[in-house]
């Protein structure tokens, strides 16, 4: 058991690795009325290729398998799914899938250890059936169609498709209607056996709970459970194809939605060094495109952008990119200015010590505020467990960061970017 206190953020973590490989992180937070429990597997939509450990046979799962499996994990025996059981125990349950992980969670104010046991049991003892898999296809299809009606979801997905063509990173987390219909019970069973072993999972519990009793309950729950041997391992696919220059589609929108994506080379840093790179990438984007920049204010004054303007960076396994988007009638002008600003970032008027200090202070304030959210805290810890760093060190690294650190990140990654443009135009 490893207990760590992070003075900068006044947080404590207790980390335990069980004999079966399950990583447990407890985050006690006094004076909170609810407790969150999140069980996560290091398996997401990007993981579609598996390789047999002995024969080297390669199997490709349908796109969206991780999301499909998330749906079916809640299928219970005798028609009662896990949602109902949690509800009877006074808890709310949910689940979500990303490109890299699948998480199952509950929040409750009482019966904490009982709900933790339920969380572990329904994920580790699945009861989904071939019949249930077939019935679920229509439900997932409807979910995908719902997202297809969301123009902001569509523009983001267009950017990913343009940045990562013919690669799982460019496909919607839920897959497509075609791949959903191709998914079989056998596909889900193989995915489960390959990625739901405790050695590939982490359990995070945070809130006001009895630490010793919770540790005991978790250990007792895991005793005697037998898990299938993992015959297949993840096969990471390299990004080979060039980005798509431009894509456009028509939807029922009042004005165009425009987006620009930049794909960077993968970051090879690991552990705490990776966390530093993540923060440097976010700060550089803030310095060049953020709300405190001269250009951003200029775009607002000219009414080229409004509150829909958004930008984000992703610095994760395989996916390292920057994405800008806004709803605007000035799509051509913005695309031109965004590209020019990016290509000449080292000469930006806003790349100076004074602006850097402003951005850092804002980032620290945002981080401290977000740490008041139990959901944000839990989700940030998930990434840190699988990437082998402590997310609570983020504040310390922000305080230590220099403008030179950020510039070095930019020189290493922004100088070799590939781009894609995406536009959603109003129907005639």
From TrEMBL:
Pfam families: Peptidase_M16 (PF00675), Peptidase_M16_C (PF05193). The keyword Zinc applies. InterPro entries: Metalloenz_LuxS/M16, Pept_M16_N, Peptidase_M16, Peptidase_M16_C. Residues 184-344 form the Peptidase M16 C-terminal domain. The keyword Hydrolase applies. SUPFAM superfamilies: LuxS/MPP-like metallohydrolase (SSF63411). Residues 63-168 form the Peptidase M16 N-terminal domain. Keywords: Hydrolase, Metalloprotease, Protease, Zinc. GO terms for molecular function: metal ion binding; metallopeptidase activity. GO terms for biological process: proteolysis. NCBIfam families: YfmH_fam. Belongs to the peptidase M16 family. This is Insulinase family protein. It comes from Fundicoccus ignavus.
């Amino acid at each position: 058991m490893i207990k760590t206190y992070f003075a900068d953020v006044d947080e404590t973590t207790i980390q335990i690795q069980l004999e079966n490989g399950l990583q447990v992180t407890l985050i006690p937070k006094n004076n909170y009325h609810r407790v969150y429990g999140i069980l996560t597997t290091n398996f997401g939509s990007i993981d579609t290729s598996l390789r047999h450990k002995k024969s080297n046979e390669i199997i490709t799962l349908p796109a969206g398998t991780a999301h499909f499996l998330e749906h079916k994990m809640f299928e219970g025996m005798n028609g009662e799914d896990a949602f109902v059981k949690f509800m009877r125990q006074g808890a709310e349950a949910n689940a979500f899938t990303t490109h890299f992980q699948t998480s199952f969670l509950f929040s409750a104010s009482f019966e904490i250890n009982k709900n933790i046991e339920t969380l572990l049991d329904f994920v580790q003892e699945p009861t989904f059936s071939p019949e249930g898999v077939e019935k679920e296809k229509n439900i997932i299809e409807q979910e995908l169609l719902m997202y297809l009606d969301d123009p902001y979801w569509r523009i983001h997905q267009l950017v990913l498709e343009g940045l990562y063509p013919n690669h799982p990173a460019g496909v919607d987390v839920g897959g497509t209607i075609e791949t959903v219909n191709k998914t079989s019970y056998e596909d889900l069973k193989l995915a489960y056996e390959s990625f739901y072993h405790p050695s590939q999972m982490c359990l995070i519990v945070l809130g006001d709970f009895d630490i010793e009793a919770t540790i005991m309950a978790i250990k007792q729950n895991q005793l005697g459970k037998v898990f299938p041997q993992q015959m297949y391992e993840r096969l990471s696919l390299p990004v080979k194809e060039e980005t798509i220059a431009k894509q456009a589609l028509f939807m029922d929108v009042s004005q165009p939605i425009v987006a620009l994506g930049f794909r960077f080379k993968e970051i090879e840093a690991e552990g705490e060094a990776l966390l530093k790179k993540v923060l440097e990438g976010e700060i550089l984007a803030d310095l060049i495109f953020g709300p405190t920049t001269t250009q951003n204010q200029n775009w607002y004054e000219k009414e080229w952008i409004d509150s829909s303007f958004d930008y984000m960076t992703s610095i994760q396994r395989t996916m390292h990119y920057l994405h800008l988007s806004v709803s605007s009638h000035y799509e051509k002008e913005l695309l031109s200015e965004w590209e020019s600003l990016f290509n000449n970032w080292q000469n930006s008027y806003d790349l100076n010590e004074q602006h850097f200090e402003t951005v850092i202070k804002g980032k620290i304030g945002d981080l401290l505020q977000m740490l008041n959210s139990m959901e944000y805290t839990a989700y940030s810890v998930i990434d840190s467990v699988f990437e082998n760093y402590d997310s609570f060190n983020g504040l310390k690294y922000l305080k230590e960061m220099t403008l030179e650190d950020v510039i070095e990140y930019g020189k290493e990654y922004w100088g070799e970017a590939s781009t894609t443009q995406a536009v959603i135009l109003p129907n005639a």
